[in-house]
């Protein structure tokens, strides 16, 4: 199992994946070759022995952009409902950016349904620019396409 982490004074935040050879992807900034699920966890740095317990807080997927090795697509992002509005979303956004950088990506893209105001707000807080909206012909949903340089 691969683990990518960052810490603050009180908490260690980390993502894990079952993907094999992920260390090589980070070491050589090779990017990904297929869709990969990452699970977001935290451990309190103030817990007492015997062992601090990791708590799963959410997950996200990264997929390589076909035809351009410098772009990663972030999708299927989910933060547990009991974590929303608690300040956990800031380290969640930060670790996604740091992982994408460590994998060698330059740009991250994502979409959101424009009627989903929390989703749109999260994209804006994540520093995405949304230069394009369109109506999906298959679902009739108004979609916002966002990008950011990381």
Unreliable segments (pLDDT under 50, ≥5 consecutive)?
none
How much of the residues is beta strand, in percent?
35-45%
Which structural category fits the helices and strands? alpha+beta
**Which CATH class applies here?**
Alpha Beta
Radius of gyration: 16 Å
Largest sheet: 8 strands, mixed
| Series of secondary-structure elements, N-terminal to C-terminal | EEHEEEHEHEE
Distance between the termini: 25 Å
Q: Strand order, main sheet: write it out.
A: 1-2-3-4-5-6-8-7
- So what's the overall shape? globular
CATH architecture: 3-Layer(aba) Sandwich
Share in helix = 10-25%
Q: If you average the pLDDT, what whole number results?
A: 88
Q: How is the CATH topology named? A: Aminopeptidase
CATH homologous superfamily assignment: Gcn5-related N-acetyltransferase (GNAT)
Q: How many beta-strand elements? A: 8
Per DSSP, the total helix count is 3
What would you say this structure looks like, in words?
This protein is α+β, with helices and mostly antiparallel strands and 150 residues long. The protein has one domain (2-149): 3-Layer(aba) Sandwich (Aminopeptidase), CATH 3.40.630.30. Helices cover 19% and strands 45% of the residues. It contains 3 helices and 8 strands. An 8-stranded mixed beta sheet has the order 1-2-3-4-5-6-8-7, covered by helices on one side. A hairpin with a 2-residue loop joins strand 4 and strand 5 (68-79). The longest helix has 14 residues, at 89-102. The two termini are 25 Å apart. The relative contact order is 0.15.
């Amino acid at each position: 199992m691969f683990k990518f982490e960052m810490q603050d004074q009180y908490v260690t935040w980390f993502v894990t994946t079952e993907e094999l050879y992920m260390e090589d992807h980070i070491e050589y900034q090779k990017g990904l070759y297929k869709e990969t699920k990452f699970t977001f966890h935290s451990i309190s740095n103030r817990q007492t022995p015997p062992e601090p317990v990791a708590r799963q807080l959410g997950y996200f997927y990264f997929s390589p952009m076909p035809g351009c090795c410098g772009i990663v697509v972030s999708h299927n992002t989910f933060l547990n409902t009991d974590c929303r509005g608690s300040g956990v979303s800031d380290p969640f956004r930060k670790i996604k950016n740091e992982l994408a950088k460590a994998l060698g990506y330059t740009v991250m893209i994502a979409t959101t349904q424009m009627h989903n105001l929390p989703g749109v707000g999260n994209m804006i807080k994540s520093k995405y620019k949304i230069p394009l909206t369109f109506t999906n012909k298959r679902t009739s949903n108004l979609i916002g396409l966002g990008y950011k340089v990381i």
